[in-house]
Design brief:
Shape: globular
Largest sheet: none
Order of helices and strands: HHHHHHHHHHH
Radius of gyration: 25 Å
Number of strands: 0
Strand content: under 5%
Structural class: mainly alpha
Length: 280
């Protein structure tokens, strides 16, 4: 429209609900690109750690399946993703990768010690299922607590996040060990995991980090950590007093202040007795 109608003397400014939704849809496409980039980065990091293609693919696949199930359940329950909850799939994917990597690492180490892949999957499932279940349930309940806030958007966000985290119980705690019991890991990956474990035991590699962190179990280092935490808590509280709540800029808060929609909205509200709200 602007290309056809605008002239040096005529400027076109478009506001309203339809225009806002169009801007958000354009932004959604960018979010999907960022999601793809995040998946590629996660894949590269996991492969760099495991040196195993099959287990890396399974971890990423199970996490993506969790995101797909979450989106499907959200649609099934009659809800929808809005600008405030569109990043929830990122969160579900990240949590899924974290739990999946733990399962994969346990199975990989057991196979490296000579355990059959099926038995290794059982051992890892028994060791980590209760801890993983507790962590995911705590996450789900933590998000569900947001539903006490009497704001529809926040309630939908809380429900969407809770559903996504609950789905991870089935995909990354149950499905992933079952799949790894069939595929196993490559011999190179199994030996690589044992090599790193031995180096950590000798205080090399990540073992240096664990030895450093062990110092905080002693009284002087522990008191120092508590003191630093107290100072940071005081600073955080002082900064929180300056926290502003609500819409700080005119126009649509979902968009950047310099977006074309907000620029058009600012022009119209500044020159006419009309706003984006009344135009809806």
């Amino acid at each position: 429209m602007r290309a056809e109608k605008e002239t040096p003397k005529i400027k076109v400014h478009v506001i309203g609900f339809a225009k806002l939704i169009g801007e958000l849809i354009d932004g959604l496409l960018k979010v999907m690109v960022f999601f793809g980039i995040a998946a590629v980065i996660a894949t590269a990091i996991i492969y760099g750690y495991t040196r195993c293609v099959r287990s890396t693919v399974l971890v990423i696949a199970c996490s993506i399946v969790a995101v797909i199930w979450q989106l499907g359940l959200v649609a099934l329950f009659g809800f929808e993703l809005d600008p405030f909850s569109i990043l929830v799939p990122f969160l579900v994917f990240a949590i899924g990768v974290s739990h999946g990597a733990q399962k994969m690492n346990g199975i990989m180490q057991d196979i490296g010690r000579g355990t059959h892949k099926l038995v290794a999957a059982r051992y890892t499932f028994r060791r980590l299922f209760l801890a993983g279940m507790t962590a995911l349930l705590a996450d789900a309940v933590g998000f569900a607590v947001l539903m006490v806030i009497d704001i529809p958007v926040i309630k939908e966000l809380a429900l969407t996040a809770s559903i996504g985290v609950a789905v991870l119980i089935f995909t990354n705690l149950l499905l992933l060990p079952v799949l790894l019991s069939y595929t196993g890991v490559s011999p190179v990956a199994a030996q690589h995991s044992l090599k790193e474990e031995k180096e950590e035991t000798r205080g090399k590699g990540l073992g240096k980090l664990w030895l450093f962190l062990d110092r905080f179990t002693t009284r002087p280092w522990a008191l120092g950590a508590i003191g630093v935490s107290a100072v940071l808590a005081i600073i955080g509280f002082a900064v929180s007093l300056q926290l502003k709540i609500g819409d700080l800029d005119p126009g649509a808060p979902e968009l950047r202040p310099d977006s074309r929609y907000n620029q058009d909205n600012a022009y119209i509200t500044g020159n006419y007795a009309l706003s984006a709200t009344s135009s809806r």
